[in-house]
Amino acid sequence: MKFTKTIAAALFVAVTATSAMAAGGYASLEYSDESNRKTGAENIKEGLVIGSKMDGIDYSIKMENSQTEIGSGSITQALEIRAKKNFGAVYFGARLGERMTSSTHFSYYAIDSGVKFPLVAGFTADVGARYRNAFESGKLYETTRGHVAVGYSLTKQDAVAVRWSRSHGDEEKDAVRLQYSRSF
Q1: CATH class of residue range 2-183
Q2: DSSP string of 115-156, one letter each residue
Q3: Element housing 179 (H / E)
Q4: What is the residue-level pLDDT of the chain in tens, covering all 184 positions?
Q5: Residues 129/147, Cβ–Cβ less than 8 Å
């Protein structure tokens, strides 16, 4: 039942974001290399974000897939609906998601905040943190994550970014993410 509610909410966000593409819509592709500090395991993660910025709030849906390597290892998937509000350079966000593996799925929430500011000549910096946990007790998903990112505007509509992050808690990971975004 939780999964159905998450999918229904995600579809609502997707329809809202798609209908608003003319007014601040965007899509992002993400690729991450992750390293588990406890086990030494290396993972890859791909993500697709579709969103829209309306009335000062960024609404989006994120779909992601994680695997040891393409075509090998167990697959973990997640679907998130997200909202983020900027207050000048400072931002705050909230997320609801569903995590799915071959053996289980459960709902989770996350809150994040950070500071995003211009550097020089089209470059921006983003420093932030996220807290995430499962709604159900007994699910090992409570983590905090810090990140540092640098972005560059290729054009008025295209941007790239690289982000380094470190997670603590139930997941002990370091990750490097590459991102391409296209605004409409």
Answers
A1: mainly beta
A2: EEEE-STTEEEEEEEEEEEESSTT----EEEEEEEEEEESSS
A3: strand 173-183
A4: 455 555 555 555 555 555 545 568 999 999 999 999 998 888 999 999 999 998 889 999 999 999 876 666 788 999 999 999 999 999 999 999 999 988 888 999 999 999 999 999 999 999 999 999 999 988 889 999 999 999 999 999 999 999 999 999 998 999 999 999 999 8
A5: yes
Question: 84 CB contacts (<8 Å, ≥6 apart)?
Answer: 57, 58, 60, 91, 92, 93, 94, 112
Q: Label residue 81 exposed, middle or buried (CB < 10 Å: 0-12, 13-18, 19+).
A: buried
DSSP secondary-structure letter at 175?
A: E
Structure tokens belonging to residue 87: 């207050």
SS3 17: helix
Do residues 174 and 34 touch, judged by C-beta distance below 8 A? yes
Distance between CA atoms of residues 107 and 109, nearest Å: 7
Secondary structure of residue 9 in the 3-state scheme = helix
Which residues face 116 on adjacent strands? 126
| Beta-bridge mates of residue 95 | 82, 110
Q: Let me know if 71 is exposed, middle or buried by CB neighbors in 10 A (0-12, 13-18, 19+).
A: exposed
